[in-house]
Design brief:
single chain, mainly beta, Immunoglobulin-like, 6-stranded antiparallel β-sheet, 5-stranded mixed β-sheet, elongated
Length: about 300
């Protein structure tokens, strides 16, 4: 009996050793790791929940890394959900190639009191994602002056039966036969170009004339006054545009914008695009593209908000 008992214990010991060895092998297999994304703190950077005045610019610096050495980062997106609404995409790129990524984002908050949840998401080439969010609470700023709002203004391009022009001071739309005698009031001319696509230009823009690649059919080059409207690219979403109720939001967006090239022309416009502008009379404003239809004989519809 003693010999049998010793043999039985030895078998158990061997079996246990095999079990432990098997467990050890499993533990050596590293689990697949998701990419990481972090907000960089410091002066001037938003890296967590904040309360700020409506219409204020926020800046966030983001760094991301792949979770494993054999994976690359593939996609980076930024979305914002305003006042509980469905999130809208602010930035989306798939032009990522390496194991790390860095980006500095600058956005204006909504122009009224409320909450906006900003979500930053990184994805690797194996489809694994990681996101990080913060909430911006905006406080009301009814200290700005009143503005004029002109909604859903329709303009025809130069080959449209009704090519049209716009005066931002009154919201009046003029046509080919009435534009020349009202030239001093007109700030926008719309056309769809072969290179610049949907374009809103100042009457002073050099797109209008009788030279090569210029537009002569509108007659703008013959007007007695050709106002020089200045356009800027602004970091404002369509939702942010809709929320602006005073000139405080307009002036902050325009001040932080970048002049288009040339500054007398806003080109390649698509639905949802928001542009800043300043008229020859010194009034600052914003325009939002609602629709673009057709090409040289087509139309564009825009909403406009401008200082009184």
């Amino acid at each position: 009996m003693k010999k049998f008992r010793n043999y039985y214990l030895s078998v158990l010991a061997i079996a246990s050793l095999g079990f432990l060895t098997s467990c050890g092998d499993d533990e050596e297999i590293e689990p697949e790791e998701r990419p990481t994304i972090e907000f960089i703190g410091g002066s001037g950077f938003t890296s967590g929940d904040r309360t700020v005045p409506a219409g204020e610019e926020i800046t966030t610096k983001v760094t991301a890394k792949s979770g494993q050495s054999d994976t690359n980062l593939e996609r980076f997106t930024i979305k914002v959900a305003v006042n509980g609404a469905t999130a809208a995409t602010l930035f989306d790129t798939t032009d990522l190639k390496g194991e790390s990524f860095e980006y500095t984002a600058r956005f204006f908050t909504q122009g009224v009191a409320g909450t906006s949840v900003f979500t930053y998401t990184i994805e690797d080439n194996k489809g694994r994602t990681t996101d990080k969010s913060y909430t911006i609470t905006t406080t009301s700023t009814n200290t700005g002056a009143a503005i004029n709002t002109f909604s859903t203004q329709l303009f025809g391009s130069f080959n449209n039966p009704n090519p049209s022009f716009f005066a931002t001071s009154t919201g009046t739309r003029y046509y080919r036969n009435t534009a020349p005698q009202n030239a001093s009031k007109i700030d926008f001319v719309y056309f769809y170009g072969a290179t610049n696509a949907a374009t809103i230009a100042a009457p002073s823009d050099n797109s209008f004339g009788t030279g090569a690649n210029q537009i002569s059919s509108l007659g703008v080059h013959n007007w007695s006054t050709r106002n020089a409207t200045n356009f800027k690219t602004v970091a404002l979403t369509a939702t942010g545009f809709d929320a602006i109720t005073t000139d405080a939001g307009i002036t902050s967006a325009y001040a932080a914008g970048t002049n288009t090239n040339p500054a007398t022309r806003a080109s390649s416009l698509t639905p949802g695009t928001v542009m800043g502008f300043k008229t020859a009379a010194g009034k600052e404003g914003l325009l939002k593209v609602v629709t673009v239809s057709g090409t040289e004989n087509g139309t564009i519809t825009i909403d406009v908000k401008v200082q009184k």
